[in-house]
Amino acid sequence: MPVTLRMAFRNLIEHKAKSLIVGVLLALGMLIMVLGNAFLDASKRGIETSFTKNYTGDVIITGVADGPVSLFGVQSVGGMEETPTVPEYEKVFAHASGLPETRFSSGMATGFGLLTNEAGDEAPADDEDEEDRMSAFVMLFGVDAANYWELFNTIEIEEGSFLKPGQAGIMLASDRMEKIGKHLKRELKVGDEVLVQGMGGSGIRLRSAKIVGTFKRVSDGAGPEQLSYIDIDTLRVLTGMTVGAAEDISLSDDQTAMLAVDDLDSLFSDDAFGAIDAPGSSEPGAALTEAGIGSLLGDTSARERLNAADTGAWHSILMRLDDPAHAKAVVASLNAWFAQEGIAAQAGDWQKAAGPYAQSVDVLRIVFTVAIVILAVVAIIIIMNTLVVSIIERTGEIGTMRALGGGRGFVRRLFAAETITLSVVFGLVGIILSFIGSAVINAIGFEASNEFLQILFGGKVLRAIIDPLSLVGSLAVIVAVGFVASLYPVSVALRIQPVRAMQS
Amino acid sequence: MGIVELENVRKVYPLGKVQVEAVKGVSFCIEKGDFISIAGPSGSGKTTILNMVGLVDQPTDGEVFLDGKPTSKLKDAELTRLRHETLGFIFQSFNLIPVLNVWENIEFPLLLGKTRVGKDEKKEWIDHLIEEVGLSDWRKHKPNELSGGQRQRVAIARALVTRPQIVLADEPTANLDSATGEQILELMKKINRELETTFIFSTHDARIVDIADHIIRLRDGLVTENVRRGEPAAAACSSGESAGA
Question: A16 — contact with chain B (CB < 8 Å)?
């Protein structure tokens, strides 16, 4: 063993107190980094598995908007931007489905709705809690029943059946049926009708939907809890993806004249009603007929167009590949094809599809990294201070080495060896502690009590998965911290002159 | 033959706002194989002179010649190499490396230079030195397990391990009891005779002065006496004796 390394080991043992101060800091730093990364990796892996299996598939195709588009809409500052539809859907779908890597693909659209009673009597019951109330708010996945279920085979029917192609209806999560029923003050069962209040860019719309089945997931994991599947046409109407919605509405001066009325009371006065004569009759006060009222309302084709689903409108196309590892290449090839064809669409991987859910781990990682950097700076200052004290105490020893013929390089190597030895030894201690810590946490199995924690944990249970690469990276960071912390103390050591040997 | 020569050497130290002149223009010549005592009371400048001869300190004025070569213009790396190849040090406080055992402490200077000694040759030489200084049974002991005399013996062996031409000893008996001090002196004298190593002492120990071949007495930074084997010694090495003169 080289003399520098031998001396380094022995000096660390000789100066136990200082070695321990520095070592404990390094080991703790290692423990925090390894465990933190283990949680984040587990979380990311959990979210990835859960989302690719249950919600996103391997690749998503969406329209283009100002902000990033995901399965859950557009992320924008105001949060009000409407989700764009996939342009030239038929052409894009045919191309995506025809790729050799594609196993399954399906179109879908997303919306939000409130389940309500026709009479609007969903006032809170006495024993209803906040969770019951919130259960009436649902995220709606409008699916293409012809191919969506083969893309996501993790959905299992508990009662009733899957939505069939061309069938109108809604599928509710079996574990939420009771809560929704409690909110609606009636026992819900398959075959019942529920009123869905859609919230889209074109206002509030109501549609009745029959519960065709209840479902649960085979693989549980992180994801939106209040998710229901609905036939695509109903969703389109609820979210304003209708034929007429895309048309410009132009009204004549006569039609907008009512908006210019100064006195609103005059609209409802006896005179106003008295002025209405039965249409088609020249005699005042003649009986009103349906045909007469129809003719009074005039042309209703615009309203009908507003209520007719735009059958070509889809928010996204999801793809399941034979090998998920090809996702990056498929995304690149699709985006190149969109550019070549001049189609304003974009492809992305599961992270793009998962949007805010996937970003939560990235945000956490950034916060964690910032915390680690702050901790590293504090650790560097403490280690530096301790090493400087140690070097001052060893002035005579360093002077002697210099007097005996040890050059500055030798002194530098000696202290580098000490710092690296300290970093590696206590880094390994930190790794051992991390393995023990992760084993204990995995054995205990902390459960996530809400959706936020589920996303944080990447599943229902907190897991720590130690990645060998992250282990090597963390060790490198610890050695780097040790090295940086030793730079100033080493410069102090290098300034010690050999004459100090005579003065010791 | 002159191995060390000091030519009008002055050393001034800043001490707060005042300048202290520790050595006020000293010249002398030391010959190879001599056993020299630089004697004088505390503050006379003997340790300062020893430091300059040992190349661990630089004169403010004047020149120190080592083996005929001027040393004042040498850079740190060259001074380090010269110290390693030419000089051995014995310190008043022994200055052993606390984490190394007796054998390793003696070996230490051999690991510093660029010249590598064969493993067997090194072992044989270190074992011989350990035997010479009477520490055969203590080779695996750490300095804190040794007495003062034993530590100084280790320091002597360490000073000799690179086979230096000159060994500098700063008050080598100051921290030893008189019996141990005498043993150490006898040992150094024996090595001086056998290996022809030049020993330069800074001391006020009368016993060293008594056995020295060459005595340089100092007072207030000046040489007051320079005697070699009872005769006044020359302040400068003759041109035949030193290449630098």
Answer: no
Cα B153 from Cα B159, distance rounded (Å): 10
User: Of the candidates A286, A283, A274, A501, which has an alpha carbon nearest to the alpha carbon of residue A406?
Assistant: A501
Q: Please write the tens of the pLDDT for every residue from A226-284.
A: 889 999 989 988 888 765 555 455 556 665 665 666 666 666 665 555 545 555 555 55
Nearest-by-Cβ selection for A405 from B51, B84, B97: B84
CA–CA min distance B51, chain A (Å) = 7
**Alpha carbon of A443 to those of A340, A435, A437: distances in Å?**
53, 12, 10
In this structure, whether the domain defined by B33-60+73-231 belongs to CATH 3.40.630.30 is answered with no
* Residues B95, A402: C-beta atoms closer than 8 Å: no
Give the relative orientation of helices A16-51 and A408-444 as an angle to the nearest 10 degrees. 50
What are the pLDDT digits (tens) for B111-139?
Answer: 987 777 788 999 999 999 898 888 999 99
Beta carbons of A405 and B91 less than 8 Å apart: no
Find out whether A405 and B80 touch, Cβ atoms under 8 Å: yes
User: Is the pLDDT score of A201 beyond 80?
Assistant: no
Q: Which chain A residue lies closest to B106 (C-alpha atoms)?
A: A404
- In A222-342, which ranges are continuous DSSP H helix? 232-239, 253-256, 270-274, 290-297, 301-307, 327-341
Question: What token pair was written down for A97?
Answer: 């489905």
By C-alpha distance, the chain A residue nearest B84 is A405
Chain A contact for B122, CB < 8 A? no
CA distance B202 to A499: 15
- Quick one: pLDDT at residue B155? 92
Q: Which residue does chain B place closest to A405, by CA atoms? A: B84
pTM, two decimals, is 0.69
Residue A396: its chain B contacts at CB < 8 A?
93, 95
Question: Cβ neighbours of residue B225 under 8 Å, at least 6 residues apart?
Answer: B215, B216, B217
CA distance A234 to A308: 10
Q: Do B77 and A502 touch (CB under 8 A)?
A: no
Number of other CB atoms surrounding residue B27 within 10 Å: 17
Domain boundaries, chain B: 33-60+73-231
Is residue B108 within 8 A of residue B187, CB to CB? The reply is no
Q: For B27-49, how does the pLDDT look when each residue is reduced to its tens digit (9 = 90+)? A: 999 999 999 999 999 889 998 99
Q: Which residue of B has its CA nearest to A500?
A: B56
- pLDDT of B218 > 90? The answer is yes
Is the Cβ–Cβ distance between B215 and B227 less than 8 Å?
yes
Q: Provide the 3-class DSSP secondary structure of residue A196.
A: strand
- Please, are residues A357 and A74 in contact by the beta-carbon 8 Å criterion? no
Q: Alpha-carbon distance B89 to B104, whole Å?
A: 16
**Which residues in B lie closer than 8 A to residue A499 (C-beta atoms)?**
51, 56-57
